[in-house]
Amino acid sequence: METTIGRLLFLTHRTVHDELDRRLGERGASLWNWVLLKEAANAEGASQRELAQHMRIEPPTLTRHLDKLAQDGLVERRPDPDDRRVVRVVVTPAGYERLRELHEVVHELDDELRGILTKRDVEVLNRALPRINAYFEHTKEVSDARR
Fold first, then answer.
1. d(Cα 34, Cα 31) in Å, to the nearest integer?
2. What is the domain partition of the chain in residue ranges?
3. What CATH number belongs to 21-116?
4. Which of 1, 36, 37, 54 falls between 20 and 30 A from 72, CA-CA?
5. How high is the pLDDT of residue 70?
6. What is the pLDDT of residues 33-56, one digit of tens each?
7. In the chain, what is the greatest distance between 2 CA atoms, to the nearest angstrom?
8. Does residue 121 carry a pLDDT above 90?
């Protein structure tokens, strides 16, 4: 029986996820540390709720990861000046430096992945994977709107 595309995507995701987490672990970090730092840096002062929604995780899960990053001095939580109920997440200079270090690990793995694929394979993946993602994002939005 032929393996489905969904199963292949899942297995590949899991393998790459685990390998990246292992390599980041060698630097005293985790995949979640890198993702959260990256998203917080890109969002520039987003609220905790906005970050959780963007990362597709529950707010309590985000809080747990933010606690660790804040304890390490990599992010700060700041009250929103216009709404005291909202807490903004700001990456510190140490957080940006740590993010740079973690990006090196991520790019090393990316280079390795590109090395086992042909240029054509990379081009096909760069076209196909975003298309698959967009299809299911749209499907989810339509489904959510009907609720």
1. 5
2. 21-116, 118-147
3. 1.10.10.10
4. 54
5. 96
6. 999 999 999 998 899 999 998 888
7. 59
8. yes
